[in-house]
UniProtKB/TrEMBL annotation:
Top-level taxon of origin: Bacteria
Gene3D superfamilies: 2.40.50.580, 3.40.1350.60
Entry protein name: DNA/RNA nuclease SfsA
Domain named Sugar fermentation stimulation protein C-terminal: residues: 88-210
Pfam families per record: SfsA (PF03749)
Amino acid sequence: MLNIIDFKLYKAIFVSEGKSRFICKISYNDEILECYVPITCKLSSLISLDDKEILIRETTKAAKRIKYTLFAIRNDKDYLIVDTGFANHIIKAILTGNKNKGLFYPEQVIENYKCDFYSKTSKTLVEVKSVITAEQVLLIPNMKTQRAIKQLQCICSLLSQGYNAEYFIVAFAPQIEKIEIDTTERVGQLLAEFSRLGGKITCIKISLDESYKIHINKLIYSFK
């Protein structure tokens, strides 16, 4: 369990999605307000939203005209985090807590490749991928992405040059039971190559309890 949320969370109600996938409407303090949605796809394509209790936070970037950012959605007895960028904060806390892995620095450039974290001591680079799903079994890849293909190609090349690597798949999905990696897709093929070259794949699921503590559970994965 992690206690790493260092910002205030407020309860509100989800009203509707906006015309832009980055905007939704919420009910907060008896007002209908616009709220920033910090993911790159329509939330309704991933999870049920109508009239759900949500958690919002104040938008941190000064340039943002919208005061609040959507952080999590009520999911029975806990919350499902939808701010996928928060995955890096979780992994940073995990890496910091594991002293055997050495000291990791964020956003380092290694051989022209920018990784999420890197430890010079162990020559280990870390890449973090976050997903949101309502499924119990998650199939990877869950969407088409050339960026992930290029990243994995670069990481496999670095593994061949003697670097170490760990690939975290962070599932913001309290109900999920396992992850299946589809090797008929290019991303799946590259993850299989990554594993053959000695890379470590770590899959975890995240939930947020009512006291805003983060719970982490390891997930099993398989290639299919």
